[in-house]
Structures are given as structure tokens and as C-alpha cells.
Design goal:
Helix 1 runs antiparallel to helix 4 and helix 1 packs across helix 6. The chain has a three-stranded antiparallel beta sheet with strand order 1-3-2, covered by helices on one side. It has a domain of about 160 residues. With about 230 residues, the chain is mainly alpha-helical. A hairpin with a 4-residue loop joins strand 2 and strand 3.
């Protein structure tokens, strides 16, 4: 019984950490999408696009799809965080939802590129006309993610100003780069949670606990012998 309880507690701890990281990732993705809508609206205003062919309206369906993926990720995260019986199926669900969000973010960049091509814009054609964009709630660090490092841009960490070619694709890439820290941490935790399901993990936990128990008993014995020696010397 002891082995089963200790193994269960250790496994639940790893899965709870996974659930919390997934919740954090989902919430951050939702915040990033909100910032993207704001930045696209700013792009439209800057280019005098108010009704027809706006970047924001062109990207709307893909942003909504990505938001839905993030919501599903959070739902699965809540289930994992509260689960009393961690299993491999939850690992599979976590990987599936994370890949779905990642793929949706890649699709955002593809859609933005399509808009630029439709309007005869691309990163190379406007490199001589560099603009300054104030991106909403800019973050200055990134852990990396499945979506790669191509979102990297040059930024001023204090002013929040990002310099890039003035295209919709640049807006999307830079918004993702500066408002979403990626999947590295949660990806790592998935591995730890999966490992916690293996018999070898249970054995490792029990060995560690046995070692600690033995060490504590040794310290108690040493302390007891010390008291006896002191008593005899008196």
C-alpha cells in the first residue's frame, strides 16, 4: 500500500504541474491573440484601411480558430490538473492540444503572408521602408516553441518599439514573438509527467524515500548515542 500511495502522490504532483503549465500557456496564447487583433487594427489605421480589405477582417477567422484551440487546451489542462488517476491518455491529449495550438499559430503566419501577396507586399519589397510598430504588451524574453525562432525581431525592451518590414506577416510574427513565450516549458513537463507513469519512476521514488528514512534513523541513533556518552562522562 505504501508503494502505491507514494507513487500516486509523486505522479499526481507531476501531472498537476503539467496542468498548471498548460493553463498558463493557454491563457498566454489567448492574451497574445488579443494583442494581435489590436496590432492588426493599428496596421489598418496606419495604411488607411477602414472598411474594405482590412488585415484584421482578413485574419479574423484564423484568429478565432486559434482562440478555439487555446480554449480546448485550457479545458484539457483543467482536467489534467484535477485528475485523481493520471494516465497515458492525458499525455496524449496534452500533446495533441499543444500541437493544435502550434499549428494554428503557423497558419496565422501563412494567412498573413497570403494577405501580403494578395496586396503585392512582402518582407523584401519594403525593407527599405522600415516602420516602427508599438506592439501591445511587448514581452522581451522567449523560451522557444514548436513554431520556431523565425518570429525573432529587433526590439527596444524599454520603449516596446519593434522595427520590421511593414507587412501583415511581420505584424503577426512580431506579435507572436513578443507576446508568447512558447511551448518549451510545457513540452518538458509532458516528458516528466509521462516518465512518472513508468515503474522505474516509482522505484526511484521509493529508493529515495528509503534512503531518507535510513539517513534520519542514522541521525537519531547518533544523537541518542551522543546523549548516552555525555551522561556516562558526567
Amino acid at each position: 500500500m505504501g508503494k502505491s500511495t507514494n507513487y500516486s502522490d509523486a505522479t499526481k504532483s507531476e501531472f498537476s504541474k503539467l496542468g498548471q503549465l498548460m493553463i498558463q500557456t493557454a491563457d498566454e496564447a489567448a492574451f497574445c491573440l488579443k494583442a494581435l487583433k489590436s496590432n492588426l487594427a493599428e496596421y489598418d489605421t496606419r495604411h488607411g484601411l477602414f472598411f474594405l480589405n482590412t488585415a484584421k477582417s482578413y485574419m479574423r477567422s484564423d484568429i478565432r480558430a486559434t482562440k478555439d484551440m487555446a480554449s480546448e487546451l485550457r479545458h484539457v489542462a483543467d482536467q489534467i490538473d484535477k485528475s485523481e488517476t493520471p494516465s497515458e491518455s492525458e499525455i496524449t491529449a496534452a500533446r495533441s492540444k499543444i500541437h493544435a495550438v502550434s499549428d494554428a499559430m503557423i497558419d496565422l503566419k501563412k494567412k498573413a503572408r497570403a494577405y501580403d501577396r494578395k496586396n503585392s507586399l512582402d518582407d523584401t519589397s519594403e525593407t527599405s521602408s522600415v516602420s516602427e510598430m508599438s506592439l501591445s504588451s511587448v514581452k522581451t524574453e522567449s523560451e522557444g516553441s514548436y513554431i520556431g525562432d523565425e518570429n525573432r525581431g529587433e526590439s527596444n525592451a524599454h520603449s516596446g518599439i519593434v522595427r520590421a518590414a511593414d507587412t501583415v506577416e511581420a505584424v503577426v510574427r512580431l506579435t507572436l514573438r513578443h507576446n508568447f513565450s512558447g511551448f518549451s516549458a510545457v513540452k518538458h513537463q509532458i516528458g516528466l509527467a509521462e516518465e512518472s507513469l513508468s515503474p522505474s519512476f516509482a522505484e526511484s521514488v521509493m529508493d529515495t524515500m528509503a534512503s531518507l528514512t535510513s539517513s534520519l534513523k542514522g541521525e537519531e541513533k547518533f544523537a541518542s548515542e551522543g546523549k548516552q556518552t555525555k551522561s556516562l562522562s558526567v
